[in-house]
Amino acid sequence: MNLIFLGAPGAGKGTQSTVVAEKMNIPHISTGDIFRYNIKNQTELGKKANEYISKGELVPDELTVSIVTDRLMQDDCKNGFALDGFPRTIPQAEALEKFLAEHGKKIDNALNIQVDENILVERLSNRRFCPKCNGTFHMIENKLTEEICPVCGAELKQRDDDKEEVILQRLQEYHKSTEPLIDFYRSRNVLTDVPPIIGMEKAIAATLKVLGIE
Ligand code: AMP
Q1: First CA to last CA across the chain, in angstroms?
Q2: pTM above 0.85?
Q3: Closest protein CA for atom 12 of ligand 1
Q4: Structural domains of the chain, ranges and CATH numbers in brackets
Q5: Does the N terminus or the C terminus of the chain have fewer Cβ atoms within 10 A?
C-alpha cells in the first residue's frame, strides 16, 4: 500500500507511520529524518536544508521532491511505502502524483492525523530524542525526571527546531502550506481522517483500525 501521513508538527505522524510501516513491512520514508541525517553528516544537502529548517521554514520544493523521488525509485518501495512529512505543499503533492502516475502507481490512502491544536506546543517543547538509539520521548508522558534515554541510557537531546520560537513558525507554515493538502487528497477520494485521541498507544490502534490492520 502507498501511504501518506499528514498532520501538524507534533501530531504524532512520525510515531504512527513508523509503527504502520513496520506492521505492513513497507519502508518508512521521513523527509525530516533524511534532512537531519544530512545535517549531522554535514553534507551539501544538509548545509542547504539547515538554512531553512533552523528557522522553521520549509526546504524548497525542488530539492525535497528530488530526494523523495530518488528514494521511491529504490527496490524496497515496489510493494508500498509510508511517506512521513512529505508532501508538505501543493506543488510537492502534484509532483508526487505525476511521478507515481509515470510509474503506474498512485497514493492509496492519505491519513490525516488530527490533533488538538493547544497541545502541540507543549508536546513539541517537551519532546526529546536519543542520538544513540534514535528513540523519541516526551518528558511528561514518559515520566522522565532527567534527560537520560530510558532505553539505552544515553543523554537525550532536543531538536533545534523544537525550541519554542521555531515551533510557532513551523505551525504557521503548516497552516499556510500543508493544510491545503487535506482538500487536495479529499478531492482524490483517498483522504482518511484519524480523529484526535489522547495517548499514543490508543492513537496508533485507531490508525491501524482505519487501515484494517490490527
Ligand atoms: P519533520 O521531522 O517532518 O518535522 O521535519 C523537520 C523539518 O524539515 C521541517 O520543519 C521542514 O523544515 C523540513 N522538511 C521536512 N519535510 C519537508 C518537506 N516535505 N518539504 C519541505 N521541508 C520539509
Answers
A1: 16
A2: yes
A3: 53
A4: 2-116+164-210 (3.40.50.300)
A5: C
